[in-house]
Amino acid sequence: MREPAKVSGPAAERVVRPTVIVIGVALALLVPLALLGYAATALFLVFGGVLFAILLRMLADRLAALLPSSLEGGALAIAVSLFVAVIWLAALLYAPRISDQLDQLVDQLPASIDHFRKQLEGQPWGAWLVAKSQAALSEESKAIDIGGRLFAYLLQGTGAVLIVVFLGVYFAASPRLYLDGLVRLLPFQSRSLARNALVTAGRDLERWLVGRLLAMAFVGTATGAALAVMDIPLALLLGLLAGLFGFIPYVGPLLSAIPAVLIALQQQGVSSAMGIVGLYVAVQIVQDYVLTPLIQQRTVSLPPVLTLASQMFAGIWVGPIGVTFAMPLTVVLKAFVRKLYLEAYLGDHGADTDEPRSRAAA
Length: 362
Description:
By secondary structure, the protein is an all-alpha fold. About 80% of the residues lie in helices and about 0% in strands.
């Protein structure tokens, strides 16, 4: 057999050089994206620490205004101590009941899901849906029990919360140190603009966080009280879940309603389950059309499509942590677009749509 002719000289250079350039550019683009994909979870946890730091600084600033001047320097320590004391007191009062109800939830969910599956199999379309869903599950995933999954998710969530808390305390202790360090990474002529954008984003996050916490408190209290009146088992735990999942707009209420509906369906029948669905829908209607407009007069508002799109992209990119922090991250990006693009680049210094209406009226 004849060996293939070897290309050398200028012809080889014309072939090799573009190939090397293409490969180099591809690696230069793909490697950072791959690394960023692996580091995305860590970046979102750091952002969660920033959110918690904003909450602590907000409490510390309110305390500093009430304390004597000699104690203003310890306002953050007092705020952290109060936060820990409230958590400890709540755990002391409610942890045994919540723990018992969590054990019951883990025990009841498999039976509730099995009951729901049998109800579906009684309908032609339901049997088809069950068959398709079972075919999509791998044998390995079928072997994993629900209790084990819940324990794994709880363990991961606890670790993430601890990381966010520790980062938040450090950020809150020296916010100017980290802000100055971040700004100094930029060219000198851009530092003033960047600092202004970061400070604006921080203020928007503070206002958004206040509104979100108020909405969560309403959803958790209203849902738990209504479930208790309806004599639904585990009302305290289900109300707590509804409040916590309220941090995630649109997706959170749907996730928090699933265990309540399944338990009601198994223990009290279809009519009770439909009543639970109606309850969750009613709570969301009151939140979306009564409470939220009142809150947004003094906080930050985001278009629903923008919120859902950010949750979708963050969920695909990172997973549950991305969905959790998608909305506050969108608040930051919106502030950056307003300060860096609309005002600094385009020169559009129109009315700030995120300013509280009461302040604008004043």
